[in-house]
Write a structure and sequence with these properties.
The complex is a heterodimer of chains A (about 110) and B (about 950).
Chain A lengths: L1 H19 L4 H21 L21 H32 L16
Chain B lengths: L1 H12 L2 H5 L4 H27 L4 E8 L4 E7 L1 H24 L6 H20 L3 H19 L6 H32 L4 H5 L2 H6 L3 H15 L8 H4 L5 H10 L1 H11 L1 H4 L3 H23 L4 H22 L2 H32 L15 H15 L5 H14 L10 H25 L16 H19 L1 H4 L1 H12 L16 H18 L1 H11 L5 H23 L4 H20 L15 H19 L4 H21 L3 H24 L10 H26 L7 H12 L4 H9 L1 H22 L23 H24 L7 H19 L1 H7 L4 H21 L9 E6 L3 E6 H30 L8
Antiparallel strand pairs in B: 1-2, 3-4
Helix pairs in contact in B: 1-3, 1-5, 3-4, 3-5, 4-5, 4-12, 4-17, 4-21, 4-23, 5-6, 6-7, 7-10, 10-13, 10-15, 12-17, 13-16, 15-16, 15-20, 16-17, 16-20, 17-18, 17-19, 17-21, 17-23, 18-20, 18-21, 19-20, 19-21, 19-24, 20-24, 27-31, 28-29, 29-30, 30-36, 30-39, 32-33, 33-34, 34-38, 34-39, 35-36, ...
The chains are: A mainly alpha (about 110), B mainly alpha (about 950).
Amino acid sequence: MELLVAIMIGLLTACGIYLLLRARTFPVIMGLTLLSYAVNLFLFVMGRIGESQPAVIGVGDGQYTDPLPQALVLTAIVIGFAMTAFVVTLALRARGELHSDHVDGDADPRGPGA
Amino acid sequence: MTLSLIIFLPLLGALLPPLFIRLGRTACAWSAALLAGTALAILLYHSPAVFAGETLVFTQPWLPALGLNFSLRLDGLGLLFALLILGIGLLIILYARYYLSEHDPMGRFYGMLLLFMAAMLGIVLSENLLLLLVFWELTSLSSFLLIGYWKHRSDARQGARMALAITGGGGLAMLAGILLLGHITGSYELSVVLASAELIQAHALYPVTLALILLGAFTKSAQFPFHFWLPHAMAAPTPVSAYLHSATMVKAGVFLLARLFPALSGTELWFFLVAGTGTATLLLGAYHALFKHDLKGLLAYSTVSHLGLITLLFGIGTPLAAVAGVFHIINHATFKASLFMAAGIIDHETGTRDMRRLGGLWRFMPHTATLAMVAAASMAGVPLFNGFLSKEMFFAETLHAGWMGEWSWLLPLLATLAALFSVAYSVRFIHDVFFGTGPRDITRKPHEPPRYMKVPVEVLVALCLLVGILPAWTVAPLLAAAAASTVGAELPYYSLAIWHGFNLPLLMSLIALAGGVILYLLRFRLFALHDRIFPLCDAKAWFECGLARTIAVSHQLTAWLENGSLQRYAMLLVASVLIVIGTSLWGTTLTGPVAMGTVDGVTLTGALVLGVSALATVIWHRRRLAALVLLSVVGLVVSVAFVRFSAPDLALTQLSVEMVTILLLMLALYFLPQHSPAESSTARRWRDGLLAAGAGLSVAALAWGVLTRPLETISGYFLEQSKPGGGGSNVVNVILVDFRGFDTLGEITVLAIAAFGIYALLQGLRLPSPTTDGEGRPWAEDRHPLILSAVSRPLLPLALMVSLYILLRGHNLPGGGFIAGLVTAVALILQYVASGVVWTRERLPFDYIKLTASGVLVATLTGVASWWFAHPFLTSTFEYVQLPLLGKFELASAMVFDVGVYLTVVGSTLLILANLGKLTLVSQPHEETK
């Protein structure tokens, strides 16, 4: 199980990073989203994975999962949304001002980064 | 305590002149003089104790962990220098009042001068070596400002930059040296360092330490081969040159030699480094001074030469040589300051400093001429003037220098040769300016300067004479006190008499005087010879060329590293992270001792879906809509994974965030091209693929490493205290709103800021709307399908009720402000999607900005409220109440906080999405250019 989870996190990271390195804003945003899935999962499993109960007192046999990473990841998900929204807006603004969706803001598709 | 006032008064005084300039130039000068004068009075108040042999120390811890204390020390050497700095400083303030023209900003001048004065006083009064370094750097910076005072002149700017580069570089070396010294002795306090000579000199790091500290001293005191900055610093106004290059800035280097003399001197290495450098500088300066046609140029090289002489004396290393060195510091300060001021007067009254154009000024300004002649005689070492006394002592010491073996005749010979040149340029200074024919090509008629401009020169010249004729009655106690604290031991016997009988030093003096006059008579032939030998030797050109090349190289390097491509930066960032993680993971045992759990079929299926859709997102990323759909699948599987691994709160959050995120991306996609062009080369795709694979592998390895190790968590406390301490059984929520409530407050603030930022970014944005979708089909005429709106409207109250339920139960069961807020936001956004922005805005007239702000406000006030009950910020409380119909019910203050979270989440999510959605209204649809 642990191996499977580790591989999945690695895979999400790799996919996210590859898209992050693309030249256009939209794939980069998708890459960021994938990467944040990976990061959230990574942080979450720092509390280990297992057959324990959700950390709600009084439910189950007292074997609870670690609630702390969950609390951290919960806010991370929400903030992640805010950041994605911010990047999206930046991309739209860049498109409006520069008439290009290249990350380098270059109207010429073969800009300095190409 | 009053010791620190000696430094702080001028430092505070740096602020006064720029204010007092409004009251006039004289008031401005008075304001500067007042504080320097008070500092001098405090110094004099302390001086009897120092003359009695005491060392006053004042210590105030500053950063004791680093060994940096604000500790000051007033001993004989410090007293001598502080007297020079403040005394000559006061004279300079008076002189500059008449020297500066109406156009020069006088307030700034005095401000910078006092700043420099404070920094110099800091150097000479520091007990702590690190503190000394701080002041040392401050002198470099403030002298940069002073040299570049006439900032409209390029030579002033270049001279200032050169001085800063050389002395600043030396300061860096000195920093390293002093750190090593502190490492060797274990303390930066001078009293410890000066007492550890044996420890220091026996240490393996002694040569390095010595070389680094000497680099600092030599650059500051313009020793060969760093001497070239000093002549170029002459672009400064003459009062600055008179101050910096007679008594202060350049003396800081020799001060350091004197200060550390007990700790560092007495070795063969010290002798050859210090005496060798001193001799080279002495000769080089004396030679070049004769060939400068500019008055200040002559004085500058003469200063270099005299600094070399002092350095040579300290290098010889005997106590008597140190006495002579300290004595020459005093004498040089007096005669050189007065000569600079005289040169300034001549420049001021004739408009030129070129000795080829000057001459015959005796007729116009006999008073100034007399003063200059006395000072120049002192510089040449003529008997009855103070320069003669220290020069005699210098000659005597060169005869007794150790370490030279059978070459011991060399040092006296070179010393005599330098003195010979010194006589020649002194004669030239007087004869070429005041006698002979001329002046030529002078536009104005020269006359004596204003009365008070001469007073500082008169004071200094009187000192030259008094010390020269009656040394034992004037300078002897000060010299004894300063020399004693320099040597750090009992002083040997020496006599300050003018007449010691016929001896070798007197003979050397006579040779120098006679030879110097002969050399001057031959000057025109020498000038021609010099011009033939050294036509190309221009250190400034080399320096500027080196500087230009360094700048060019760094420009190239910057352009190569920072070419403006964000795509490239992202690549470099990933690559460097990869290198850091890779190297630290390399060779470690990854797998831990914990056994793996088994994989069930459902989980495996989920993982397969996750992997396939993630990979498919990447493969089809250029077809954006398809990729987006696949991305949403990944998000769904991630939220299911949270369910699978017992995190219901996370699953709910992820699910609702997923919805708003995908909606957001859909909206964005509407305004962006539907396809990405295929523009990456195959090599780039391979490179990025390898980077991505590497990053994925390292993250997987890290996750694997952690997951196979036993868990050590601090969560036990939270699990135990959740119910009794926080009054809730959903530990995740209690952590969010109670234990770590302050974090959550920070996070909702960030959320609100992001939403406001987006709102601001979207203001005035116009984007072209496409008329067709990615496949070229025109958009549907029916913008708001009937079925969707018909279904969504009755759903709204239901969804709102569910979210309210989730909010209220969140403290005890999965839910809470974040999730409830997101559910509400999704329900409301659905109305926007189904019925359009206009329709929804009419029926939902909320100001989302105010809603977001009120959420943060409610959360903050919940925290503040605990202050009223004398508890720390965000202390929570709870109470059980009996409500009709509902029965026993728990109310916690943390729930109010959660309401704040709820409002913030709803407000900011809607602020973001509704404003993005509004873009579709303002944007005029037209054909997109492909």
